[in-house]
């Protein structure tokens, strides 16, 4: 039987940049990122580099005529909604690209690639000077601190100097500038967006890794993808910076160098939602069948599962209304849904700060008998004492779980299999069992239960 086609019409963006044979940056990073954000990526290759996660070993710039032919081929056929530029390598290429984008009435994101993450120079001095012509047509220009200093003469070292560099870029003709803070020292990475609407800072905690290969290309492509979909500039930048935090934390351990950012991290995380919820449902069913009522605390039990790259409570699946005791055993009050747990989910997310492989947790009753039963587990059991909790932490809603997890992990020699919260007045004593896989969580739970029954 002949089937009727069902075509999809995604927005289209084009990246004008160099090729990275290592796959983590350049055209390769741009196309992966655009596709992951629901945008069809087209490309104009400006140069071919021989590089990997350790550095650039060689580069060849294509003739300007070949670059212009690619631009013509793409723009004459596709309804391109946004342009992203990356490595342009030489002044004639920069000037040619500036002429190409001048004719367009669509958003243009300029990533002024001048220095690779490895420190290798990717643009000659004449090319740096030619960038003023391209920036004049930029909807957004996204320099890191080193590139901002080259373009403006202002070295970003804090929010104020980053703002000053951004203002200089606006003077050069850009509609907006995002001065990235990855190269600026500090516990936080602070990306400063400067536009006619004012200044906004997108801040997140710094991740202790050198695996940032392709981060600049990926961020600019994520912004371009948002603009291609019709999102406002501020929204596109906000989504892109949040995406980059996750892409860097859960980077790809590839190559012999530091590795690459994870261009598909959001897509992979979203794709795992159904399977995560299903595994939690199976664990809950096994607890009902085994009758874990002796482990259900007064506040009720919950089983929580996090997606592989979870960073927020809304990315954890749990039983809505918890699991409670009945006359004949235990039962879930309602079904499994994302965001259903607050307490146990926050604790699991806090534990993942120390061991990102942890994906599942269950809270159980705790008393002397349970403490004895925990001794049968293979693995370390840690704990935290609420009496040591600082007043300012207690006063911040939802902060105790993060503080408690930190105390427990810092006192342990390895990832604990269980963490005891001995409670305090008005707070029930609880033990939380942790695991990377549901099978581990079930084994540990049933091992404690069996020890109680003997």
From TrEMBL:
Tagged with keyword ATP-binding: yes
CDD domains xref list: HMPP_kinase (cd01169)
Cellular component, GO annotation: cytosol
Pfam families reported for this sequence: Phos_pyr_kin, ThiN
Gene3D superfamilies on file: 3.40.1190.20, Class II aldolase/adducin N-terminal domain (3.40.225.10)
GO MF annotations, alphabetized: ATP binding; hydroxymethylpyrimidine kinase activity; phosphomethylpyrimidine kinase activity
Biological processes annotated in GO: thiamine biosynthetic process
Keyword Chaperone: no
Chain ranges of the Thiamine-phosphate synthase ThiN domain: 280-441
UniProt keyword terms in alphabetical order: ATP-binding, Kinase, Nucleotide-binding, Transferase
Entry-linked NCBIfam families: HMP-P_kinase
Protein name (Swiss-Prot/TrEMBL): Bifunctional hydroxymethylpyrimidine kinase/phosphomethylpyrimidine kinase
UniProt source species: Haladaptatus pallidirubidus
